[in-house]
Design goal:
single chain, 251 residues, mainly alpha, 3 domains, 3-stranded antiparallel beta sheet, 7 helices, elongated
Length: 251
């Protein structure tokens, strides 16, 4: 790649502790050989923490793309015993506009006012009009009226990334998401303090949440199978949904 004068990015768990650059000759030679090719390492902080070993930098990102828009970092997330790493590069590419999910903001809704307007508009619908004997037309008129009043009292906003992800995992309840946030806070505190008591508390909390997530997921799909047990087409749709989720997770 270097001889072809290509831009490249190399990343992964190289299993060489860059923090020992000045005390381990093998690592010194390795880093120097990378630098001699015009590459730089984008990370200089530990990515792996252990209760029995010193923090180490085993996960590397190095590249020959050097400009002011290049940046990298380490995410504090307990997906494994190695912290996730990431890098940002300013690549210009033509791509289609992504669809962003919108949800209603219900925090500041004036419920009495909404119900009053709904009750007033209800009388404008003539449910007993002989010309509107079709129940579908009557229902559509009611839905249009309801949506119009809802639009007057609530605003649509773009869903956050966290909210968007939760739509793809409907078994994640609001209480569980709150617990996950607390677990993540404990994880950050454990890394910053290296306190055995906090570490034990985090591991206990993490295991409880893992068990609860699996239990909620099983109950969710058990309920879906129960609701479509007499419909083969819907049953296979649920099966494909589960297979698709596992495939995305594996990738």
């Amino acid at each position: 790649m270097h001889s072809e004068k290509s831009n490249y990015i190399i990343r992964g768990d190289i299993n060489l502790n860059f923090l020992k650059y000045q005390i381990d000759t093998h690592i010194t030679d390795y880093v120097n050989s990378i630098l001699s090719l015009g590459c730089i390492s984008l990370l200089n902080k530990p990515t792996r923490f252990s209760s029995i070993h010193q923090p180490s930098l085993l996960d590397h990102i190095y590249t020959n793309i050097i400009d002011d828009n290049t940046s990298a970092g380490i995410a504090l997330y307990d997906i494994s015993d190695h912290l996730p790493i990431f890098a940002n590069f300013n690549f210009h590419s033509k791509c289609g506009k992504k669809y962003r999910l919108k949800i209603r903001c219900l925090k500041n809704v004036d419920l009495p006012s909404f119900l009053e307007d709904l009750n007033t508009a209800r009388f404008d619908l003539d449910f007993h009009n002989q010309n509107n004997s079709d129940i579908n037309i009557t229902c559509n008129n009611f839905i249009l009226m309801f949506d119009n009043i809802l639009d007057q009292h609530t605003l649509l906003r773009f869903a956050s990334r966290k909210e968007t992800r939760s739509f793809h995992k409907p078994w994640l309840t609001k209480g569980l998401l709150t617990s996950i946030s607390k677990k993540n806070a404990l994880y950050k505190k454990m890394l910053s303090t290296n306190n055995p008591s906090i570490s034990a508390k985090y591991k206990f909390y993490r295991n409880k949440i893992t068990h609860l997530k699996e239990s909620l997921k099983q109950n969710y799909y058990r309920s879906k199978f129960e609701n479509c047990r007499n419909d083969v087409k819907k049953t296979w749709k649920v099966i494909n949904e589960i297979i698709s989720t596992k495939t995305k997770k594996a990738n």
